[in-house]
Amino acid sequence: MTWRRDAAIWLGADEASAEQFGHSGGLLMNGIPVVVSPRSVHRDDWLAVASLDKPDGVADDRWHRALLAANGQTMLSADWAWGLTDAGAALLTLGLPREVCDDSHQLSLQLYGLLAITESVRKSAAVAAPLAPEGKDALQ
Predict the structure, then answer these.
(1) How far apart are CA 94 and CA 116, in angstroms?
(2) Which residues contact 121 (CB under 8 A, 6 or more apart)?
(3) Per DSSP, what are the bridge partners of residue 27?
């Protein structure tokens, strides 16, 4: 699928990674795995999912509060939702709008947003505790 391949090029992926993304729908950008796949049999019904492991040294409760805070904000802006795997990894899911299908530039913009939000949650969860007053958590 050239629209996925070309979107990866727009994002700055190397040629081999972009080619793989075009074929499989899986891409690793900035250490964040992203998958773009059909949600249903309908031609214009796709999902993008980014997976994010809990940062080292972050307590489960802080991680969960960071994800809940992010979920509230992201759901206001688009068809996004955060979830957790059984292993504690976060999944940010984005329903791709119809106009994105077969448009590599539009897909790259959607994926850029997905990656930016995922990266910001990873960073904010990792730095929240050192910034909080003793005995408090900055995400409360």
Answers:
(1) 13
(2) 52, 66, 67, 70, 90, 92
(3) 34
**Contact present, 54 and 88 (Cβ < 8 Å):** yes
pTM (two decimals): 0.84
At 21 the pLDDT is: 97
**Contacts with 30 (C-beta within 8 Å, 6 or more apart), sequence order:** 115, 119
Mean pLDDT of all residues belonging to the chain:
86
| Beta-strand pair 26-29/80-84 | unpaired
Per-residue pLDDT tens over the stretch 16-65: 999 999 999 999 999 999 999 988 777 778 999 999 998 888 888 888 88
